[in-house]
Amino acid sequence: MFRKLFFIVLISCFTVVIVESQTGMKTADLFKRTDSNSQTGRLNIIQDPTIDTLISRYILGYENLGAANGHPGMIGVRIQIYNSSARNAREESAKVQAEFITKFPDIKSYVIFENPGYFKIRVGDFRSNTEALGTFLLISKAFPDSYIIPNCFINFPEQNTK
């Protein structure tokens, strides 16, 4: 009886220590502004502190995902224009990529190698299918076998394009 009680108290103390060791993070600490423009205003957001913790976990999760892939980025959408595992797939993918760059110089292209010998060319860095659809319609005229690939790890797209 004493062992069961001791075991229950030990587990409850351990649980309390784990819960208390999780520190909360404020969203304001994640996005600090360095400019000190006198024309900027101040916005106070009153919200539950657990929302800050969830946002920070989301951001840190993407940072860890980027560290695992070797560069920062996010989950998004790309358009695949070439996929082959033939013997000359490397040379063919280089030709297709050169053709793509001449037709669409403003869209980034990426050559991807996946085992067992697949060479793929994926283009663009889009946050959603809707954002990729317009570009896909243009690309599919020149590359009819192209299709949209969801859930790819992409580079952060430019936000201020005018």
Report on the architecture of this protein.
- The chain has helices spanning 2-21, 27-30, 49-69, 89-103, 129-142, and strands at residues 74-84, 109-114, 118-126, 147-154.
- The protein has 162 residues and is of the alpha+beta class.
- A four-stranded antiparallel beta sheet has the order 2-3-1-4, with helices on both faces.
- A hairpin with a 3-residue loop joins strand 2 (109-114) and strand 3 (118-126).
- The relative contact order is 0.14.
- The mean pLDDT is 80.
Helix content: 40-55%
Calculate the mean pLDDT score and round it: 80
Name given to the CATH architecture of one domain: 2-Layer Sandwich
User: Which band does the percent of strand residues land in?
Assistant: 15-25%
- Give the low-confidence spans: none
Strand line-up across the major sheet: 2-3-1-4
CATH topology of one domain: Alpha-Beta Plaits
Sum up the overall morphology in one term. Answer: flat
